[in-house]
Amino acid sequence: MGTVAVLSRLPGTAVERLGRHHEVRYRDEDSAPPDAELPGLVEGADAVVATLGQRVDAALLDAAGPGLRVVANVAVGYDNVDLDACRQRGVTLTNTPGVLTDATADIAISLTLMVTRRLAEAERVVRSGQPWGWGMFQLLGSSVQGRTFGVLGPGAIGLATARRARAFGMDVLLHGRSEPDPDAVAELAAEVVGFEDLLARSDVLSVHTPLTAATRHLLDADALARMRPTAYLVNTARGPVVDETALVAALEAGRLAGAGLDVFEDEPAVHPGLLERDDVVLLPHVGSATLETRTAMADLAADNVVAVLDGRDPLTAVR
Ligand code: DGY
């Protein structure tokens, strides 16, 4: 029997299941613990279950102590975790790929439709109480059919989003660090292109790349300037992949048609220049936010913990 520190509230039965095998220290709050609470929670733990709002750094790992064997991050992204610090201490890191693919792809395509069809703006008109009626020229957006959907980072979520875009009649371009799955490329009748082509030819550019040193500000002023002035940017991956100041400048100058963002550079802060614009749609990082998905994420994190503490390989280790 080990000790598992679950740092914030989880849906479903994951905590109960962990409790059948191990002693669980459960912090039943839907937020990351304040710094002062953290050492007490993790001290002596064999496993830590963390969510995205929790920075897992050397200080946390050291507060847990040398018995710590696994950190289970309840997210597919793990930029909140200092991977080197985990490696140096022989701590296994696990994440939750796969189970949130559809939910996140749904949000990426929703943002695409919301921003191209001006749906958030339209909804605000109705709520505002201002007089409105059917108007030939009222709130005209752009059709997506026959347009080009560019995927930056054609992993599972990028490809699932591309399938949805294809179903809406869009042509698909794919660009990533590694070659996308050839079967998916064929199924989508997609074109695999270089970064320059992706920028120059996408009518909607959808970001699905993880945040790494190489992708931080990959979409900077220079990259944004190479996009079409009629193009839209959609980001459901990580905020810092886009230079938000450069994005605001491009929108202000009319060098981009709009943006749909579920993630921000400095969450939960949002660049004030974005808040005041009608040509952007802003969501509070809800890509994986369905009860079913979050429950599956929590279950997978619990399974990973149980596996490692049993001396088995975790189901989804970060390599
Ligand atoms: C993830 O899993 O990385 C998502 O951003 C969480 O919603």
From TrEMBL:
Q: Which UniProt keywords apply?
A: NAD, Oxidoreductase
* Entry GO MF terms: glyoxylate reductase (NADPH) activity; hydroxypyruvate reductase [NAD(P)H] activity; NAD binding
Q: Does the keyword Chloroplast apply?
A: no
What are the D-isomer specific 2-hydroxyacid dehydrogenase NAD-binding domain coordinates in residue numbering?
A: 110-287
> Residues in domain D-isomer specific 2-hydroxyacid dehydrogenase catalytic?
4-318
**Keyword NAD tagged:** yes
For this protein, the record's InterPro entries field holds: D-isomer_2-hydroxyacid_DH, D-isomer_2_OHA_DH_cat_dom, D-isomer_DH_CS, D-isomer_DH_NAD-bd, NAD(P)-bd_dom_sf
| Record-stated family | Belongs to the D-isomer specific 2-hydroxyacid dehydrogenase family.
Protein name in UniProt:
D-glycerate dehydrogenase
